[in-house]
Each structure stands twice: as C-alpha cells, then as structure tokens.
Task: structure prediction
Amino acid sequence: MNHLAAFNLNADDLLMQALKEDITNEDITTNAIMREKCRGRVQLVCKENGVMAGIHIFKRVFELLDSTTEMDVFFHDGDTVGSGDVLAIVTADVHALLSGERTALNYLQRMSGIATHTKSISDALKGSKTKLLDTRKTTPNMRIFEKYAVKVGGGYNHRFNLSDGVLIKDNHINAAGGVKVAIERAKEYVPFVRKIEVEAESLEMVRQALEAGADIIMLDNMDTDTMKRAVEMIDGRAETECSGNITGDRIDEIVGIGIDYISCGALTHSSFILDLSLKNLEVI
Amino acid sequence: MNHLAAFNLNADDLLMQALKEDITNEDITTNAIMREKCRGRVQLVCKENGVMAGIHIFKRVFELLDSTTEMDVFFHDGDTVGSGDVLAIVTADVHALLSGERTALNYLQRMSGIATHTKSISDALKGSKTKLLDTRKTTPNMRIFEKYAVKVGGGYNHRFNLSDGVLIKDNHINAAGGVKVAIERAKEYVPFVRKIEVEAESLEMVRQALEAGADIIMLDNMDTDTMKRAVEMIDGRAETECSGNITGDRIDEIVGIGIDYISCGALTHSSFILDLSLKNLEVI
Amino acid sequence: MNHLAAFNLNADDLLMQALKEDITNEDITTNAIMREKCRGRVQLVCKENGVMAGIHIFKRVFELLDSTTEMDVFFHDGDTVGSGDVLAIVTADVHALLSGERTALNYLQRMSGIATHTKSISDALKGSKTKLLDTRKTTPNMRIFEKYAVKVGGGYNHRFNLSDGVLIKDNHINAAGGVKVAIERAKEYVPFVRKIEVEAESLEMVRQALEAGADIIMLDNMDTDTMKRAVEMIDGRAETECSGNITGDRIDEIVGIGIDYISCGALTHSSFILDLSLKNLEVI
Amino acid sequence: MNHLAAFNLNADDLLMQALKEDITNEDITTNAIMREKCRGRVQLVCKENGVMAGIHIFKRVFELLDSTTEMDVFFHDGDTVGSGDVLAIVTADVHALLSGERTALNYLQRMSGIATHTKSISDALKGSKTKLLDTRKTTPNMRIFEKYAVKVGGGYNHRFNLSDGVLIKDNHINAAGGVKVAIERAKEYVPFVRKIEVEAESLEMVRQALEAGADIIMLDNMDTDTMKRAVEMIDGRAETECSGNITGDRIDEIVGIGIDYISCGALTHSSFILDLSLKNLEVI
Amino acid sequence: MNHLAAFNLNADDLLMQALKEDITNEDITTNAIMREKCRGRVQLVCKENGVMAGIHIFKRVFELLDSTTEMDVFFHDGDTVGSGDVLAIVTADVHALLSGERTALNYLQRMSGIATHTKSISDALKGSKTKLLDTRKTTPNMRIFEKYAVKVGGGYNHRFNLSDGVLIKDNHINAAGGVKVAIERAKEYVPFVRKIEVEAESLEMVRQALEAGADIIMLDNMDTDTMKRAVEMIDGRAETECSGNITGDRIDEIVGIGIDYISCGALTHSSFILDLSLKNLEVI
Amino acid sequence: MNHLAAFNLNADDLLMQALKEDITNEDITTNAIMREKCRGRVQLVCKENGVMAGIHIFKRVFELLDSTTEMDVFFHDGDTVGSGDVLAIVTADVHALLSGERTALNYLQRMSGIATHTKSISDALKGSKTKLLDTRKTTPNMRIFEKYAVKVGGGYNHRFNLSDGVLIKDNHINAAGGVKVAIERAKEYVPFVRKIEVEAESLEMVRQALEAGADIIMLDNMDTDTMKRAVEMIDGRAETECSGNITGDRIDEIVGIGIDYISCGALTHSSFILDLSLKNLEVI
Result:
C-alpha cells in the first residue's frame, strides 16, 4: 500500500495545505474555550455502511498538528464497516483533535466514499477476467488519495497522469492524420517502458490500431455488439478497455464479451462520501 | 464575484499544483503527436442540463499553460445550460488545449455540479426568508472553488474556516462546563468583529445560549416541532440555523417555521459533477 | 493562546523563512570557530523594563535548528520584566544557539516591544468599558506574531484580514453611491457570520449607518464633542469604535464618552523593540 | 539600486505572501460593494515630513494584483517629502487599488520611516569620514526591504547575513580560547573573499586582533576616551567600527575620533513609520 | 520537444530556484557599476565542438529576470556546433544579461555536454536496431533537463522515476523469494499501463523472467557470450536491455548480438560540459 | 563543516525536492514486492578509489523517508576510500532503503567525484602558498553540496554567489568606462565588508587596479611570463588569483610564480562521479 516509506513525501504537503486552508491563523473557538494544553481522546464513529479507506491519512492529519498523536485502530482499509461501528480511537492534545477534526474527516469520508462506490462495481465483476479501472477525472489535488481509494475498493489504476502513460485520442489522431501515423510517432517519441494505448470509435480504427501495434485499445462509446466484434478482431493481440458511461445494467453484457478493463470516471468524480464523525471527546 | 482582482492570488497556486499533479514532466502523448507549436481552437460542450460555475477557472488553467489563450464565452456563471449547448470556444496553442483539458474540466465539472445541486435546493426556498448555507465539509484544497460554486447556485456561505468564525459545538460546551461559560469565554477571547454561534440540541440549551447572548443559534438534529418551539423562544433575539440531513421533504416544514438558515454539507461533499467535454478541436 | 495545537502550522514556515534569510548557506563565523557539535547553554537577559511576549516563538526558532533544544522559562508571556532579569535559559547545540540567536531575538524583541507599548495604553483604559484594538497596519509577514503580541499586552484584535471582516470606508461608500446602499450590498454578499462595520465621518453618516443596520460604526477623526453626540445618537444600537491618532491626552476624554473600542495602528507600526540579549554562553 | 533586474526575483515571493496574509480568500468588502471590474485611480498622499523609500515596492504590490497597473511618480526614493505632497498617482482596476492598499502602504510607510530615521543620523555625519551602518537587527522577512531603505537614507549596509560575512563576537572568542586563535580559524575556514571582523571590548583585545590580522575591529561599548586610544593603536591597519547605543549626543565626539563606521540597530528595529495614505479614489 | 506548452510548468520553478541560489539579495557588482536600467545585447559564443541542447532553457533564464528579453537563434537543439560559432544573440536589460549569465550558461553547458556525449555513443549505434538509453543516475533536481539533453543527443529515455516504471532488481527478487513471485506481485499491483522489467544476472533468471511474462529483461553485467545466449533464449518474447559499464569497445559486439537497448548512466552522471561563453556585451 | 546546526535548513528542501523528482506518487516496484513495513539493512560499497564527501547528505536522504534511520559509518568525509571498502551500513525500513537508494547515491557519488577531482589538484599544490579555488560554475541547485565537496577535497571556496562577493569583469569595466571608475563605484556601493576583486587581462589593467585599491586581482588568461610580471608589480599590495583552463602541466610554473589562488571551474562542472553502490540488502 502506498502509505509505506515514500508516502508522506507527497501526502504531507497536501495535508498541511488543507489544514492551512481551514486554519489561516488559529482555531478561535477551540482556543477560546480551552486556554491550556490538555490531552484527550475521541472516537471515530461510522454512521452508514460502506468500505473504509484512508485511515492512515486520517491519523496523519492529527500527527501534523501534534506529533504525539496515538491511534487505536479497529478496522483497516478495505474493511466493510457498518453504522455504529467505532472505527478508531484517537488520543492527542484536545486542541489538535478539535482543530484537525474537519480536515481529517473530509479526507477519510471522501476516500471511503470512493472505496465504497468502487467496491459495489468491482464486486459485480468478480469471477470474470474483466477489471475495473479509474480515470484521470479526479478532484484537483486529490489524485493520490482518490486513486488509492479506488485500489482499496477493489479497482485498478489506469495511468497516473499525462507524463507516465500514453493515450491517443480522437483529437490526437486527427492532428496526426490517422491512427497509424499517430502510433508510429508515439513509438518513436515516448520512453520505451510505456505502453501505447489508442482510443478507437469504430472497427476500422480498431483494425488500424492493431496493424500499427498498439498495446492497448480503448473501445470508446461502442454498443455491445460492436464491442463484441472488436474483441474478436483483436483476439488477444492487444489489451482491451471500454469506457463511456457503463451503467450497472450493461456490465453483465460487457463481462460476457471478455473485455479486459472497464474504466469508470464516476468512481472519483461522482461518489457520495461515507458518513463518519468524531464522537465522545473526553479530556484525559 | 471573487474572480476579481485578488482572485488569482489564491487560485493560481492551486491551479498550478493541479496541473503539475497531471503533468509531472511533459504530456508525452501530445508532444509525441505534435512536435511543433501551432494554434488551435476547441469547443466546450455541455452534455447534460445544469448550472454553470467556474468558467473563469476553466479559462485560467489554459492561461497558465499559454498566456495568449483567448476565450469566447457564450454563457456565464449562474446560467442554466443544456445538453448540446456550446458554452465557450477556447483558442490557444494546441498543446495547451490538449494538456490542460482534463484539469480545466475537472474544476469546471465539479464546480458546475455543486452549483446545479445548490440551485435545486435554493430554488425550493424561494419566496421564503430562509436561506441555504454551505459548511466546511468541502474537498481538501478545493474550498475557494466549492464555496464560490455554492454562491453561484444561489446558496450563501457560512464561515470560511476555523480562524474567521466561531461555532461552539457540544464538545466545546462539555469542555467548558456549560453553554454560558463557553459563550463568555468566546466573547472574551475572539475578535469583536466575530459573531458567536452555538450549537443547541435541546430547548434548555437554546435558553442558555439566549441568556448568554449568542448571536446565532444552530438547532442541531431537532425534530420539526422542537425546532418550531425553539424559534418561538428565540423570537428574533438571535439568528437561527438548522442542520442535520435536511432532506427535500422536510424543507417545506422548516421553511414554514421561519428559520433563518438551513446548512447542508452535501452541497460540497456529495454532488455529482456536471458532464462537460471539449470537442471539435481544430488547428488554425 | 495561539501557541496551542495549530500554531506551528502557520508560524513554522515564517520562522524557517526568517532563518533562511539570515543563513543562506551556513553560519561561517560559528562554523569556523567550532568545528564539531557540542552542547551549550545561554541566558536570555532583559535589558530594560517591559512586557514579554513571544517566548514560544523564541524557543521554536532554536528547535527548528536543533530538535533537542530545551528551555527553562522563568517568565511567561504577559509578565512584566525588568532590566537584568534572566528570562530563560536555552540549552542546545552551540551552533544552534549562535546561529539562531539573532532571528530568535528579532522576533522576541519586536513582539515584546509591541506588548509593552500596548500595555501602556490598555492600562490607561482599565476600569472603563472601552477596549483597545489593533489594526491591519502590521509589518508584512508578521501579522500573526504582532496581533498575538497585542493580545498579550492587554489589547484586543480587530479583523485579521480582508477576507474575514467587513469594513466599509469612504471610498467604498463613494463607489456604492451612499452609506445605505453600501451596507445593503454587504449584507447581501458577505457570509452571514460577518458583522458589518462602517466608517462614519459625520453625524449624518452615523444616522444613515444606523438606519441601514450597521453592526459597528467607526467614528473616524471626529472631535471629542462630535464623537459624544454620535455615541448618544447610536445609543447602543451598534457597537462604536473610534480611530485616528488617539494620543494619550485624549484617551481620558474618549473613555468618558463611553465609546466601545479605540483602535490604534501605532501599536504594530511604530513600537520600539524591547532590549533583550543572549548572554553567558557556556559549553556543557 | 536593487530594484534592477534581479529585484523581483527575491521580492515578489515576499510581496505575494504579504498579500495572502491580508487576503486569504477574497476582499469581501470591496467585492460586495463593486461587483464588476472597473478602472480607477488614486493618489498617494504624504501626511508628514520625511524621506521616501520603496516606491517601486509600493507599485509592485498593485502589479501583482493587476498586471496593467500604471503609476505616475512625482517623487523618487531618497527625496525629501512633505505633508500634503502627492507622491504618486496609481491607476489600476479599482479592486486591485482597494485590496492592495494596506499591504502597499505597510511596506512603503515602514521603508520610508527607516529612510527618514537613517537620514537624520547620516546627515549628522556629513563632512566627516565616518559612515553609518545598519545591522542584522531587522524585522524577520523584511531584510531586503529594510537594508535597502537604510541605503536610501544615506546609510551603508553591514553584512547581509551569517553566510556572507564574518563577525567574531565574545562568545566565539571564549569558545575558541582567545582572539588570536579565533581569527586564525576564521582565516583558514572562510572563503578568502570575506573580510574578518572581530569585536573588541578592551584595548588588549584590540592589540590581539591587530596582531592576528583582523580586517575590521568593532569597538564594542567603549567609552569615548578608550575608543580614541583604540583608534590610535589601530592606526589604519584595520577598519574601525563602533556600536552600542550611540545616541545623538555622542556622535560628534565619535566623529572627532576618526572612527570609520558607526553601526546602529535602531535604524531597522525601532523606527517610526512615515504617515502616508491613499486618497481621492475615483472610478475612470 | 518538451519545451512545448507544459514545459514552463515544471522548469520555471527550478530555474527561479537556481537564480535565487546565485542571487540571494542582488547582484552587487552589476548594480554597483550600472545604476540605471539600460538595454544591451550579448553574443553566445561556442568555444569547442559539440552538440547544442537547451537553448530554450538558456533563454528562459533571462526572461525570468526581464520579460522583454529577445533572442536571435542561429543554431537549434541537436545541431552540431563548432568552436567560434555565434550560437545566439540575446537582447535584454543589461542587468538581466549580467546577472543571469552564469545560471543560463550553467544549464546550457551541462545540457550540451550531455547531448555531445550521448551523440558520440548513439552515432556508434546507427544502422543497428540497438538504441541507447539513459538511467535515473541524473543530477538531483536536474532530471527534466538532463533526460531532455539525452534525447537531443539521439538517445532514448528509460523510465522517468520510481512512480512511472517498474524495474525489479536483485534485492526485490530476494525479498520476494524469486523472480516468478516478484513478477506476479508486480502484475497484480502496478497500473496495467506499465510494462514489467526485470534484472537478470544469469540465464536461469532470464528463463524464469520469460516464464513469468516479463515485458523487458535487463541483462545485468553479463559477458558478451552469455548475453548472446540470453538474447537467443528470449527470442523476441521480451524486449532486451543491457547495462553495466558498456565501454566503447564492447559496443560493436553487443550490437551484433541484436540487443534492443543499451543503458548508460555515464551520459548523465559523468559528462563534461560544453564550453560556451557570453561575449561582446554592448549597451544599445 | 556545514553539516552542523544550520545545515538542514537549506539542504532539506533540496533533498525533499530531489526525492519528489524520483517519486511523484509512490515507488511502485518496491510497494508491489513488499506490501508491509519491515526493517532492513544495506551496505554502502565503494567500487573505485577516491575521496568520500557527503556521507551526511547520503544519510539525510533516508532520514527524510524514515526518521528512524540509523547508520554505522566506517569512513568520514575527506577519507581516501578504495574499491571494495564498505563505507557504511544503513538500517531503516526496507521501503525507505529501496526508494531512497538512487537519490542518496546520486548526491554522494557526485560529491565524492568532486572531492576526488579536487584532491588530485590540491595535492599538487601542497608545500606551496598557492591555494585551489572553486567557481560559480556549479550545477544548478547543487551549489551548497558542490562547494562543500570542494572543501572536503582540499580546495577553498570563492564567493558563494552574486550577492556576497564583488568580481568586476571586462564587461563591467567597459560599461563603467575604465578600471578605476569601476572600482570606485564598487567601493561606494557595496557593503564595506566585501573585498573588491577585479579581472585584469593586461599589465596595464593590473596597474590601474592597484592604483584604484583593488583587494584582489584576477589574472585572466595570461601566459606564464606575463603572470610573473604581474605578481611582481602587485608585490603583495593585493591578493592574486589566476584562472583560465589551468591544466596540470602549467600548475608547477604557476606555483613557482607565487600566485595566491588558482580557480578552476572544472572541479564542479566536469568531474566524474565516484562509483558507489548499495549492496547486500537484508531484511532484519
């Protein structure tokens, strides 16, 4: 999991920035009520059923406010959690608990919401060879958190950004003057460790992509029948991905076709949060 | 609107950071396909009905990649837009258009989604004195964009963060030893330009808050009848806000009570995006 | 006090930046003289009478250079200190002590100077209902430190910045076309948790501000008699603030009028520092 | 002057940071009153006699908010200005004028205050060979502005920071075990382009510093007679600097001795600001 | 080329930082000599034969100091340049020219040195199918510039960093307990757009890597004969890369084997710079 | 040494940035292979003879990934190391070891390469009064590391940057209209703690520089005979430096002349790295 060694490297700056977004000077309410440092503990309580993701981020927010923060964890990322469950108990300076609460929850709730949404779809793919992918339709400055949450929910990550993956779309093809020349230019230009993915909107484009040696062919907004014929034409010579508003109903059809990947932007751009809250704070 | 003078001051850093999240080195696909600079234009097309918000952010993303970006705008923030509408035409270096597309849309789609969601609720409040408020349950590092979108959708902003507003919650009250002492401490500590808001879960707490001189009383998770009695007790001596999963059905009841404000976290934490895309790119 | 949980969040970046301003590469004098790490202690000595403010900032500067820094504190923020008093003893790596000395003192001396200045005026207001306020006339990038020092000296903070408080000045009124319309626009636009303050230069403007429902009226550069009539006219319907070079002599008059607040820019823009130094460094 | 080519390199970050300190989200008052962009102009008016310093910084603040800012300047840095003088007229978007006003003035007033203070002392040294120096007792994160203001006021800059100059103080001497060994270590360690300055509190220390080949000897807190004998002993073999609360009265005595430099921390740590304001804003 | 749209996005921060490394306050020599702004031009002169790379970076350094910088370019990236050639003429404020000279040259000389070194090896591979690769052995905070220079010199880029490419080395294999399990874990974990590369030190490891379905096999420190047998065993089922101090003499042997890629760390870690200088500055 | 107190102040930001350059999201290979935290140790092995420099930087890279990193050091900066020597053993989380390896080595190898190169020349100067200097021809954003490595190798540092040293070159002299006026302007403008260095290309320019009171005269590209006459003319009235492609052969001649300093850009711009690697990683 990417909470290992290098994680804070990239996450800490974003978490600090989020804390500063919420505290530009001081937490005036908390500081007004409690004038001195004192240690306290608080429960993280689940208020609806779902899948938890991001508990290390949640903890890290408090650590950035109080390095002596401790947390007892009763559930782990990927676990199914239910309304009423106490997920963790955080112990820290009371000011850190109160000042960090909203930011820590904003991360955890959103990440858990994405994991919950992802799980509901990835479960439907179980038993098939088809895997669920995310996209780059993430919330700005949230990508490392949201793509992690997709993995927790049983999904797989597509490319992380424009620098580390090739995806030739219709506009690129037009600009290049055809599928073949576009793929050739990509093969010449991009680091050899990259696979070349091409978006195809018709069987003819699939054929050209195959000829030019694409590694992955994305079947874009095809109806189920066309998609089936495309997969037959490709016949294992490239990996296949389909995208474009794949609703629950069509998933079974698509799985039946033997497509390798379904990508779904809604995982990250249109999930509900998972309702969680901090309860029963007590000074110790 | 906050796209005026000082806006770039705070927005630019976040937009740059989002662009760097998506482009850590270069856009290898676009640079592979098009080796030289050339100017192009592309249409921003609406794919479902809603309310647009954030068109200046959308443009700013491209400007940060190419300072000569121009945009013809056919709709403005707050306008109702429909599926098929061309909202704007952006003209810039083709590389800027292709490399900035996803980031620009990620902002605009999310902001428009929030405005659309907000509008659907704020419209229901029209004709009454009750106003719709957002909360601090925003996506980390998206607050200035999300709170702006709420305003575009006809909502009003609650406090921006922990430094610029006072909201005494149950935990604060416990820590202080009562509503009265908590309010007194706040009045003594916080800058006099701040109003003092207190969360009340019972009529008794409402009574104490009134006595201690709270400026705003938040009626937290009360049933409609209790809320009604609370408003009568307050009788204009403090502003009133209610929160806690106010679903569409209860809105009419609450409006009837004459509450001043309804706050709704879902506006920012659980809106769907508005589906938009860039189409018909052409080199010019 | 705002040295609680969230303090380092905002202060650390500024302190680091100040250290880097003073050490762009290394402290060549100290490193030349002492080639190896060794622990030492040094006294913080007071050289004139005043009020101390910022001892936690002072310590934090050394901690940022040496995380094992320890400090014995003999006086606390707000205490009156006298020439010759040893205020604290700092123990750390000698290099940290010597390299951090100037930056730590630059903060502590300036903050203590402001607290001392503030105390001299706030003491004159004791026994009255009138309170002393600071302004936004702070040294750039020093606001959180300077506003804190004002509180330590017995003053109160006005709004922190342009985002978290409303103050309608003459230019705003001109632009809007009158006091009334300006206040109406503010009430419509700004978050409801904000109070609306208006600057009034005449009794007529006071009258209009009252009618439009201003929360606070600032009596700007009025003579004592006019100010008295303004306070009578307002009669508790708004809070009152006066500003404009309130010298020591006029304070008694103004207090007699029953004004709520006196704001004073000189607290932060024209205070002398309090003379302090580090003495008797010894290697241990 | 350091407003040349490289200036923005270091100043812009600090100015942006100061603007963000004052505008964490938006200028709610100005944006409430004026909803649309419009161009305006405003006068920079002087309210007391002094020396102006920092007019380019003043302008730069507005430019950072509105790149189309224009300024007509009627006085230049170093000019004597009088109460009532219009120093400049700034033309820009009205929102930029109102939102940037306080930050621009906070810089200009402080810098002009330092220049005014410096001028009053440097004028007293005119006709002599003795020059006035600043110190590192500057306000944190203001050094480039404050040291520039000292030059504008006719003073000279001492070392900029701990990395670019050597000053061996009593604590260094103690740690090294003597003046001679301290100087030797410095000569061995520090880049050869640096001069070696030593603080001497007695004639014996002056003698040792001379023998060890110090480039500059600072006569620290000596009475006038001892200082005279020190200068005679040095006899041009090193430059001489004196420091330590040199009040106006002693300046004549010290000048008579023929000391090369007088350093004065108060120039930067205890100057009053120069009173300036923005007046007569008009929409154009 | 990556000087297109998104380039400044990542380069500008690094260039600004390099300028600040060289100018912490002001360029005191230049500012001393020339007190007023004036425009000038200077020639970029080549002093030894080689390949130019980075001319846009060179120009950008001056633009960051003076946005009105203009440059006439007589050679382009990838061109062979000779001693005495005038490569470009830069026109800008003289202060910008003098203050930016060293930083601009430090980039251009290093990048051109790398391109020259790369060209000398890539030329030796011409006519064969074997391509020359760089590595991650770049100078810290110089990677985007150094990898670009490799491309200019006719080399190809390997993965950009640890996030965007998989390379399983001996330590990973040990930790996993074998080649096969290591590859399986990678296939399960890493985004599907990534190829899986494995380092093999023996024919047995090559066999296992093939079986487990590695996309690329790096033949590490093998003698030519073993490498030959490895390529035969692989037989096109994976791409092949060899590394490990490939000196000029062995290149012909390796090319004969039909290896796909040779990677060479020295391109970026041990190239000499190309000698260039700014000459004949004149004020205009 | 500058790894003392203030070192991390400036180094940490650069090291973090270098780590982020290599890890934009996560180390996918390592995280794929090892899913849980576990502690390990690894040897730092030397693969060719040279001088080690930067072992504290090497360690610091791992500490920034894992604050519990420990290191047993068997050699120190400045020590001669030989092929096969184990220089240190690092113990930390295995993920930190694997993810930080390349960045840590990139620093240490480059710094050691510079120290090795420097040592080879500074050894040739032993027994003479002539010292070896570095220049500002450093790799961008590597200056503090490269200049430190020069010192470790027995060299001395010239000025650190354009703000802390004066060096009047031919272009400055032309612009000023002569050596004398250039030196006068510098003496008037620059802080008095700075020495004035002038570049002289002829004996006539040496004479003028002497007359105008230059502190250091750089003899630029002179033949040995002219250099000899210049040193005789200067006769100890200024320090002497020579530069301009001083190859090994000429060093003896120049030393014989009695020049004070030889500056050599190649130390930092054209050194080979020292070959080092991490070996024998084991989980503990």
Q: What stands out?
A: The domain at 122-269 of chain E is CATH 3.20.20.70 (TIM Barrel).
